[in-house]
């Protein structure tokens, strides 16, 4: 508060001077800050008997002064303050104040916006005694608010036709806004409320709407005025956000499917409605007891409604259900309650507020007046309630909760017409200072039917998916083709264009993919029971499926059990079965009903048979590298013979041993250059049941293919018409090139059109039989395939021969630039292929050539053509192919004459501001280009009279028009023009005034008025009287106002040129501001630390004191000077500068403080002080070896401290982390300090407390890293191979150096070795130092640790680690005979002494069973030394010596022991021996018998010893026979009676084992046991298989029942897979002939039946076994054929809609397919022949998915091919049908779009803005035909052009026909008449009304509809438009009312007069409001006007025709005050009758 007394008077003075405070006195100031005190100032009371007037004006024009009284206390009604709204006491009184307390405080007092000066004048009068503390008020200024109108410029998306923006949920709307400012909008802010609880700021903003609903967007624009001026209008842009579509019910019948199954999915979409339009507001508010504030309080709550349609209003009170409020209040007599609608209308529910009403209350109130809520009851207000609250309120009780009517003085009818959307505000006003209450909530309820539907679904469908098999409505049937999750998307779109999707997913269980189970076999199992392991098939059933764990596999004894999943076999691993038993396997997903079944048989079998096969011979592949892939498995079926391939496995090998062992089987295809192959056959379920070929079974033979290269031939196109791309080639010309040096005599060359046929060879379909004269079959480019075949090997290669036919050159276009203007270039554009050369001539002249450029164009230019130019093309040549074509094309450019003008005239001369007019005459319609004063070119079109008027509005300088060009718009020809004309513009006089500049107090204010010499200028100073001066010869007049103390403003009023009598009104002002002196603070001394020279002088920055001296005022300039004189002069300043001044201790400098804004200054002084700082040298850096290399170390700073303190013991030393901490002497660090990596710390050295002039030093702390080495190096391991097994050996320790250094530079580090760790820490001086680390023998057996020291040579930092030394012992192999000798039998019957040894069988023998040792084998000792072991130990062949086998052979063996990662070995030998084998005949003949005994069992009796004589070649051999190779190999299970053996299979292999059993005469000779096995087959051939076959039915048109049948088409079905030529089929007409095989039909491929139908009999003969059978027969039959008309393949319809997308492929229409039946049947009886249609050929063949014909079929693509099927249904057994394609084609109809409405203006007045309507289709008349008709006479064709100009109103239709296809389309438009208005405007209110109303009516013709404007204001109209409008609140005066046709047919106006009086006038002779007069009375000569003062004294009687009252009485000026008047008058338009009288008052303001 102001009465606080500060103890420091100097500070008080400083603050007072700075704030420019005002003490009450007589005077004036211009200021916008500071404090206004009473005369006692801040601390004292005002005086007795004061009478002061003080005026406070703003600093700048346009501002208004404000006084905010923060304290006020005077004697009540004795000491009085009066405040005036102006610059003196004549201004209106704003208030009179006295007394104390809040009730008497003036508060905030503001100059009104109507106050032109912005000043406040305060008058204070005190009596003679009793002065008090007075007042304190803050002074400020504000700028009145300007008018701001917010404008929504654009939005994206834009509003629709209803003015709403429609978007989808989550969509963005981009808004662009602006505003109309009455003054200036610079810096304005634009605040948006998007209606969805989000806002944004800026002119361009984006709103995102995440929830559906209707939102109202508002824009508030606020300017930079500090009082916060904002726009008051509402843009109320509606944004409708579509609710998301609800897909509830969109689901699948089955969500999980078995693979291959189907299900249906229903699509359901609906749109939810918007939420509650007017949600209840829970806005609990304390209705505070107004006694606490002493003022009435109004509490309001607003519901924003935004969900109704644009412009939707309340039309009936029944649409308002009720307004309900939950409230409690202790006294309703306090309250007014009402509802305010969006348009301001209101309904009152309670109106008390005087405190005298019944003491009723609401709810159960809380009576404590403390803000605690009571219990609220709900009160509703409804249009249908019978009584109001007034009717039921009873004192001392609660008003019952319920529904009530409004007050009788109010009504819900007040709300009719109010918009539903907008802000609805519920208001409770507490008007009396008693009691309180609580408003809990309220809600507003409308008729629910008013809510518009949110939106509609316009489309919904399922996305296409190949697995959708059927669509019915919105239900689809799906059958996914693959496993996994399949999702289907249902897509729906609403009418907002919002698309939403719902996805339904089906989980398709994986297909149960099983491999066929194996039949299970037991190989010679002996006697029952036969135990099978059924689970062997479980892995096959599950297969390779990754989800194996998902399946359950069970086994069953019947198919029914497997399907029903019952009776599963329990003992699947040990099942007792019988031979031939069928087992059924089931695999399924548990709980899914998805399963598969299969079956297999249980079999008892002997060993497999190997049947003989031929060699595999083939040609090399395309690489011809001598290696090719052989399909070994192609031999499998022949090898197996009758043995099922599913039960047996055939494998192939490259050696006998591999085949015997069943190891190393060859894969197929097998890559080989040719070699022998061994075969092994084994039972699939039992590998031990096998048979192996003895010796190679067949050979692989590979022949090379010819190496040839491709070639090409090119010819020109020489076949008429010359450009078909075909020509004749001699293909043989390329043979030499293709053969590429191969001898032609060894090869045959053939040619083919098809690559596949070239591979097939001669005789194939596309073979070229005449290669010497071949015409290509594919235009332009064709590839012929050349086959070159080796005559000997039949191996061949195929190469490509590329044939090219170069086309003849042509041109594709010849265009011109016709027509052209005389003198311009004629241009011809020739288009064709780039590079072609064209010969041509111009106007028949000489030939010329032009080459077409890279774009295929050639431009021929005839410059400056003056006559027509014709080009004739002669020839075109392709220079690359030298082909040319003769041309005859011509084109002509027509030359048109140039236009001109006739004259150019002007209206010169004119005055400045008048219009300059130029008239150009010439030819009507020509366009003239011109410029004004050399500016931009502009065009004018000469009118029908040939005139063009150019007007320069308000010209201020001479206007020169220069014509540039005239253009004929028809020919587009133009001529340059140079005509000019000038309009001379006499300037209006101007004058300006400038001030000489701002001044300080008591300076002279000087203004200079400038203009033209002799001009007369009127001006005033500070709004005073006008002064007139004449400018001197220099055009100047200087005005000087001496010694001023307040701001002076000179305003120019008018300037006149006496010569021209032209004058200009002036508003220019100049201001001389009287600026105050700056406020200066005396500074404290500036103390600076001395530098290192202790001389009491140092550099200092004086500027550090600037803020202290200037009080922080940024506009003050502070400078420093050596003397007062220098300071007053402002120079010179101290040297060298104030920021680097060398100051001396105790020195005083002068300070000048200058206001930079005003130039005014004041001075003061500054004392300087200098203090020395310690001088200390910089310390040395400290080092530390970092043991863990973390960059941190512990430093002892004590030595550094001691070194500094030794210089001067008085020094105080401290260590700091940062330089700033050191400067500030904060956060000192300890002497034992842990650093941060790479750290510099700072040392502060000072004298001690109080000086604060430290020296700051840097101390670098350096961390040296210890070597980063490998701390766990690999151990050095050596074998104990020095000949002494003592665990000692010599190590080279330095081999570990690189690993240990771990990448460190060996030159920068030293590595040394030690036997102890302690020694390594000491170094090389320790006795444990190993001086020779390269040759160190361990001193501890087997294992020793040495120590390694690594030292950084630069820093001396070290690190020590250990290194382990290990010595491994050697192994000891076994040396027995068994271990050192290995015998086997020769591996071939030729006994070549070579065999394959599996050396690994010796491993265990040599190692003595030590599994930790490994054995390696080497051929020689050199191989051992080179560590080159034998490549394959399991298949080693003994070598040869001199061509003979090395037998026996000794090899070398190493036995290795691996320990500690090192392999140590010992050496031994192994001798290999090969024994001979028997050599029986290898190829034994097979034995074959037919199945003669018991046919069908394929069993016969054989003597298998018949081949024995061929097998035995030596005395010491014996033979045994076996059914399996395994038995033969083992010698077990020999056949007991081989002379009478019955086969066990159709083809059975017998294995004969010939064994060396020794000399039978020597019992001690048991032989070598070597044996050889040979085999042969015993075969029982079956009879051919037979199957029933279908009959042959022939379809024949107009049949005679006789037909030529090709019986051989049955051959394939009869053989049923039995191959030809192994089986032959013959046909017979009788069964006897077929059985005997005689009398076969001679030509079965052309058999003519003799009866219809006729039976044919068949004989099947096995050509290999000669067995035949004749049990098959079939019938041949002839039936009547069906035929689709071959001459009708297209069905064309015109489209039914116009298409604008340019894509005909999506055009569709409904095709009536039934209409095509007649023409398609082509005479066939529709009663016997059925026609159906299909979308695919496959559907037509299958007769599935026929197209329905009950409704037109809509094509899917355009064109679309469908398939027509006609069936002969004349007899039940008829099968004849025909299928042909039918193309559905939709031809487009003409597409165009005219406007729906056109207007013809009639009775025009020249203001129309539209011309005669032109209905234009925009289509070409050469491509389309047109017929225009009018609905009144549709038979009359008005026009046949592409456009039509209607002469009269009507409904017009144009039918357009596409001349290319005959399709038509129509469009209709309405042509209406309209006209400009006839306007009548009337003032409907009486004179002097409170609200003047003008009603205007406009009439017109036709469809004219009008909108209205008053005084060029905005255009408005009623809704609905009645062509009338009412303007309200019209001010007095003359008003122009305009009406215009909204169709554009013109404008008209009327003028009306409103009689009324001005509320004030200002008679100050400024030309504005200088007199007071009744407006509109001037024509009532008998009117009487009397003016009185406020006391009733008559001052003046006015004449109605006079200028009015000038504010004087008897020549004296009357003061500012209110004055009264009376008038006797008639209403406007009345001239007779009784006069009326009116009385009122107005204000005079000065």
Observed structural traits:
single chain, five-stranded mixed β-sheet, disordered N terminus, 2046 residues
Structural summary, described in words:
- This protein is mainly β.
- Helices cover 6% and strands 42% of the residues.
- The protein contains 22 helices and 148 strands.
- The strands form 44 sheets. Strands 1-3-10-5-8 form a five-stranded mixed sheet, with no helix packed on it.
- It starts with 8 loop residues before the first helix and ends with a strand.
Q: What percentage of the residues does DSSP assign to strands (E)? A: 35-45%
Low-confidence stretches: 1-19
Distance between the termini: 38 Å
Query: What characterizes the major β-sheet?
Result: 5 strands, mixed
Cα-based radius of gyration, to the nearest Å: 61 Å
Shape label = extended
Helix content: under 10%
| Total of DSSP H or I helical runs spanning 4+ residues | 22
What is the arithmetic mean of pLDDT?
87
Q: How many extended strands? A: 148
Strand numbers in spatial order across the main sheet: 1-3-10-5-8
Q: What structural class do the secondary elements suggest?
A: mainly beta
């Amino acid at each position: 508060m102001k009465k606080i007394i500060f103890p420091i008077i100097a500070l008080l003075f400083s603050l007072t001077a700075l704030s420019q405070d005002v003490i009450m006195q007589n005077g004036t100031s211009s200021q916008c800050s500071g404090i206004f005190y009473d005369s006692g100032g801040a601390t004292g009371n005002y005086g007795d008997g004061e009478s002061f007037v003080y005026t406070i004006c703003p600093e700048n024009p346009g501002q208004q002064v404000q006084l905010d009284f923060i304290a006020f206390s005077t004697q009540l009604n004795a000491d009085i303050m009066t405040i005036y709204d102006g610059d003196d006491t004549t201004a209106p009184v704003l208030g009179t104040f006295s007394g104390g307390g809040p009730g008497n405080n003036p508060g905030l007092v503001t100059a009104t916006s109507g106050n032109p000066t912005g000043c406040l004048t305060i008058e204070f009068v005190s009596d003679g005694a009793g002065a008090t503390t007075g007042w304190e008020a803050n002074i400020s200024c504000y700028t009145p608010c300007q008018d701001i109108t917010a404008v929504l410029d654009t939005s994206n998306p834009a509003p629709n036709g209803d003015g709403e923006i429609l978007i989808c949920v989550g969509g963005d709307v981009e808004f662009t806004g602006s505003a109309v400012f009455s003054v200036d909008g610079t810096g304005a802010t634009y605040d948006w409320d998007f209606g969805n609880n989000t806002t944004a700021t800026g002119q361009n903003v984006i709103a995102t709407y995440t929830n559906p609903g209707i939102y109202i967007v508002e824009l508030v624009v606020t300017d930079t005025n500090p009082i916060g001026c904002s726009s008051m209008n509402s843009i109320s842009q509606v944004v409708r956000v579509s609710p998301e579509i609800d897909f509830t019910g969109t689901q699948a019948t089955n969500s999980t499917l078995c693979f291959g199954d189907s299900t249906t999915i229903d699509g359901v979409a609906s749109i939810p409605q918007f939420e509650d339009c007017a949600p209840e507001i829970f806005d609990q508010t304390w209705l505070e007891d107004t006694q606490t504030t002493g003022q009435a309080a109004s509490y309001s709550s607003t519901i924003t409604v935004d969900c109704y349609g644009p412009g939707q209003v309340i039309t009936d009170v029944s649409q308002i259900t009720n307004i309900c409020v939950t409230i409690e209040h202790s006294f309703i007599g306090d309250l007014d309650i009402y509802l305010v609608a969006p348009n301001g209308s209101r309904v009152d529910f309670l109106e008390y507020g005087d405190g005298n009403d019944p003491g009723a209350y609401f709810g159960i109130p809380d009576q404590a007046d403390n803000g605690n809520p009571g219990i609220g009851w709900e009160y509703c207000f409804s249009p249908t309630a019978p009584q109001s609250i007034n009717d039921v309120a009873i004192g001392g009780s609660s008003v019952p909760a319920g529904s009530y009517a409004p007050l009788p003085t109010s009504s819900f009818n007040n709300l009719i017409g109010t918009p539903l959307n907008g802000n609805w505000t519920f208001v409770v006003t507490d008007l009396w200072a008693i009691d309180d209450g609580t408003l809990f909530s309220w809600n507003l309820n409308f008729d629910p039917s008013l809510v518009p539907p949110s939106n509609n679904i316009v489309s919904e469908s399922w996305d296409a998916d190949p697995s959708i098999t059927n669509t019915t409505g919105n239900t689809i049937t799906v059958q996914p083709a693959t496993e996994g999750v399949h999702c289907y998307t249902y897509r729906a779109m609403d009418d907002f264009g919002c698309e939403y999707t719902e996805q339904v997913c089906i989980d398709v269980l994986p297909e149960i993919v099983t491999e066929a189970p194996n039949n299970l076999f037991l190989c010679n199992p002996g006697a029952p029971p036969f135990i099978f392991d059924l689970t062997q098939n479980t892995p096959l059933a599950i297969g390779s499926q990754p989800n194996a764990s998902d399946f359950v596999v069970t086994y069953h004894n019947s198919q029914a059990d497997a399907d029903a999943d019952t009776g599963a076999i329990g003992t699947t691993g040990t099942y007792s079965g019988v031979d031939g038993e069928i087992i059924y396997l089931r695999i399924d997903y548990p709980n899914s009903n998805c399963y598969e079944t299969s079956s297999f048989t249980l079999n008892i079998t002997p060993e497999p048979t190997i049947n003989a096969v031929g060699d595999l011979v083939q040609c090399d592949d395309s690489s011809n590298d001598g290696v090719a892939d052989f399909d070994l498995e192609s031999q499998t079926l022949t090898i197996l013979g009758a043995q099922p391939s599913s039960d047996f496995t055939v494998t192939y090998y490259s050696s006998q041993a591999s085949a015997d062992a069943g190891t190393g089987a060859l894969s197929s295809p097998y890559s080989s250059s040719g070699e022998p192959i061994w075969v092994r056959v084994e039972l699939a379920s039992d590998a031990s049941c096998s048979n192996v070929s003895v010796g190679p079974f067949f050979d692989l033979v590979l022949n090379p293919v010819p190496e040839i290269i491709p070639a090409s031939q090119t010819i020109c196109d020489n076949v008429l018409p010359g450009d078909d791309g075909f020509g004749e080639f001699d293909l043989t010309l390329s043979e030499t090139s293709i053969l590429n040096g191969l001898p032609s005599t060894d090869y045959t060359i053939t040619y083919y059109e098809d690559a596949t046929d070239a591979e097939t060879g001669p005789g194939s379909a596309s073979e070229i039989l005449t290669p010497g004269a071949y015409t290509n079959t594919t235009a332009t480019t064709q590839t012929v395939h050349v086959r070159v075949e080796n005559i000997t090997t039949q191996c061949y290669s195929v190469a490509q021969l590329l044939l090219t036919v170069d086309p003849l050159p042509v041109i594709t276009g010849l265009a011109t630039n016709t027509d052209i203007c005389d003198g311009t270039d004629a241009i011809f554009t020739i288009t064709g292929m780039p590079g072609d050369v064209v010969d041509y001539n111009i106007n028949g002249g000489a030939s010329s050539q032009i080459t077409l450029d890279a774009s295929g164009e050639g431009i021929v230019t005839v410059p400056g053509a003056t006559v027509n130019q014709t080009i004739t093309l002669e020839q075109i040549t392709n220079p690359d192919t030298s082909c040319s074509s003769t041309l005859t094309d011509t084109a002509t450019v027509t030359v048109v004459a140039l236009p001109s003008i006739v004259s150019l005239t002007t209206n010169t001369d004119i005055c400045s501001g008048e219009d300059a007019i130029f008239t150009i005459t010439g030819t009507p319609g020509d366009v003239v280009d011109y410029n004004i004063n050399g500016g931009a070119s502009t065009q004018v079109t000469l009118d029908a009279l040939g005139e063009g008027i150019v007007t320069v509005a308000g010209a201020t300088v001479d206007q020169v028009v220069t014509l540039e060009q005239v253009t004929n718009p028809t020919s587009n020809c133009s001529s340059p023009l140079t005509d000019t004309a000038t309009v001379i513009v006499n300037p209006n006089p101007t004058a300006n005034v400038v001030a000489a500049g701002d001044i300080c107090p008591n300076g002279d204010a000087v203004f200079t008025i400038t203009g033209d010499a002799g001009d007369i200028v009127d001006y005033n100073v500070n709004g005073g009287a006008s002064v007139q001066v004449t400018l001197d010869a220099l055009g100047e007049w200087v005005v000087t106002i001496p010694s001023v103390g307040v701001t002076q403003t000179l305003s120019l009023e008018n300037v006149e040129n006496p010569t021209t009598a032209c004058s200009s009104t002036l508003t220019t002002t100049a201001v001389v501001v009287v600026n105050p002196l700056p406020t200066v603070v005396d500074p404290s001394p500036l103390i600076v630390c001395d530098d290192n020279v202790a001389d009491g002088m140092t550099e200092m920055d004086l500027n550090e004191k600037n803020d202290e001296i200037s009080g922080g005022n940024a506009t003050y300039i502070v400078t420093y000077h050596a003397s007062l004189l220098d300071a007053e002069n402002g120079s010179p300043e101290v040297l060298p500068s104030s920021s680097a001044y060398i100051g001396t201790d105790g020195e005083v400098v002068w300070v000048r403080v200058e206001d930079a804004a005003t130039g005014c200054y004041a001075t003061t002084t500054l004392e300087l002080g200098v203090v020395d700082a310690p001088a200390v040298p910089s310390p040395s850096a400290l080092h530390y070896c970092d043991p863990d290399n973390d960059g941190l170390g512990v430093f002892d700073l004590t030595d550094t401290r001691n070194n500094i303190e030794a210089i001067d013991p008085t020094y105080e030393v401290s260590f700091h982390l940062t330089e700033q901490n050191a400067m500030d002497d904060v956060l000192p660090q300890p002497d034992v300090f842990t650093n941060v990596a790479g750290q510099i710390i700072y040392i502060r050295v000072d004298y001690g407390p109080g000086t604060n002039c430290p020296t700051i030093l840097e101390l670098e702390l350096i961390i040296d890293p210890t070597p980063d080495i490998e701390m766990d190096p690999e151990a050095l391991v050596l074998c104990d191979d020095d000949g002494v097994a003592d665990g000692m050996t010599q190590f080279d320790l330095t081999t570990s150096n690189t690993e240990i250094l771990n990448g460190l530079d060996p030159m920068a580090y030293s590595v040394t070795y030690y036997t102890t760790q302690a020694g390594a820490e000491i170094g090389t001086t320790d006795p444990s130092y190993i001086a020779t680390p390269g040759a160190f023998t361990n001193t501890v057996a087997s294992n020793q640790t040495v120590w390694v020291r690594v030292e950084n040579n630069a820093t001396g930092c070290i690190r020590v680690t250990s290194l382990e030394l290990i010595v491994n012992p050697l192994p000891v192999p076994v040396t027995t005979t068994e271990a050192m000798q290995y015998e086997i039998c020769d591996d071939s019957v030729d006994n070549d002494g070579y065999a394959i040894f599996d050396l690994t069988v010796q491993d265990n023998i040599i190692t003595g069973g030590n599994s930790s040792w490994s054995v390696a084998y080497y051929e020689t000792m050199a191989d051992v030394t080179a560590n080159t072991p034998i490549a394959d130990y399991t298949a080693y062949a003994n070598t040869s010596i001199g061509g003979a086998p090395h037998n026996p052979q000794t090899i070398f063996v190493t036995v290795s022991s691996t320990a500690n990662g090192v392999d140590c070995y010992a050496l031994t030998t192994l001798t290999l021996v090969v024994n001979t084998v028997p050599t029986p005949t290898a190829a034994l003949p097979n034995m074959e018998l037919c199945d003669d005994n018991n046919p069908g069992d394929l069993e016969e009796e054989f003597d298998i010893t018949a081949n024995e004589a061929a097998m035995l070649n030596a005395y010491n051999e014996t033979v045994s026979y076996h059914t399996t190779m395994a038995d033969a190999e083992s010698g077990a299970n020999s056949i007991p009676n081989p002379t009478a053996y019955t086969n066990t299979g159709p083809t059975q292999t017998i294995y004969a084992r010939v064994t060396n059993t020794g000399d039978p005469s020597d019992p001690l000779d048991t032989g070598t046991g070597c044996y050889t096995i040979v085999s042969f087959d015993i075969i029982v051939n079956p009879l051919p298989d037979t199957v029933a076959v279908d009959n042959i039915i022939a379809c024949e048109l107009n049949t005679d029942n006789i037909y030529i049948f090709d019986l051989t088409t049955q051959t394939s079905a009869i053989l049923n897979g039995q191959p030809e030529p192994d089986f032959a089929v013959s046909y017979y007409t009788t069964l006897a002939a077929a059985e005997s095989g005689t009398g076969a039909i001679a030509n079965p491929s052309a058999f003519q039946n003799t009866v219809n139908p006729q039976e044919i009999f068949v004989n099947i003969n096995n050509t290999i076994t000669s067995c035949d059978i004749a049990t098959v027969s079939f019938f041949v039959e002839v039936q009547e054929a069906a035929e689709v008309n071959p001459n009708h393949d297209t069905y064309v319809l015109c489209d039914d809609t116009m298409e604008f997308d340019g894509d005909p492929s999506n055009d569709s229409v409904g095709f009536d397919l039934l209409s095509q039946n007649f023409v398609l049947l082509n005479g066939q009886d529709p009663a016997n022949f059925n026609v159906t249609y299909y979308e695919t050929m496959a559907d037509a063949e299958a007769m599935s998915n026929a197209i329905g014909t009950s409704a037109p079929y809509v094509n899917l693509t355009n064109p679309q091919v469908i398939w027509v099927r006609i069936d002969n249904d004349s007899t039940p057994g008829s099968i004849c049908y025909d299928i042909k394609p039918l193309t559905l084609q939709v031809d487009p109809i003409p597409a165009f779009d005219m406007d729906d409405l056109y207007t013809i203006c009639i009775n025009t007045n020249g203001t129309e803005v539209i011309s005669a309507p032109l209905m234009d289709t925009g289509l070409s008349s050469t491509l389309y035909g047109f017929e225009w008709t009018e609905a009144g006479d549709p038979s009359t064709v008005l026009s046949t052009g592409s456009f039509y100009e209607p002469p009269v109103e009507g409904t017009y239709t144009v039918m357009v026909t596409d001349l290319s296809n005959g399709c038509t389309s129509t469009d209709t438009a309405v042509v209406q008449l309209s006209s400009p208005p006839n306007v009548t405007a009337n003032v409907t209110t009486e004179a002097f009304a409170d609200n003047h109303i003008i009603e205007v009516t406009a009439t017109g013709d036709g469809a004219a509809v009008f909108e209205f404007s008053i005084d060029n204001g905005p255009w408005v109209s009623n809704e609905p438009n009645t062509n009338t409008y009412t303007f309200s609140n019209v001010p007095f005066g003359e008003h122009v009312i305009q009406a215009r046709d909204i169709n554009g047919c013109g404008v008209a106006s009327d003028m009306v007069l409103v009689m009324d009086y001005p509320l004030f006038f200002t008679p100050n002779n400024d030309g504005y409001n200088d007199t007071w007069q009744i407006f509109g009375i001037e024509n009532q000569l008998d009117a009487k006007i009397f003016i009185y003062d406020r006391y009733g004294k008559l001052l003046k009687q006015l004449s109605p025709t006079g200028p009015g009252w000038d504010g004087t009485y008897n020549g004296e000026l009357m003061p500012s005050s209110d004055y009264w008047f009376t008038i006797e008058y008639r209403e406007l338009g009345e001239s007779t009758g009784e006069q009326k009288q009116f009385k009122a008052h107005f204000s005079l303001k000065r």
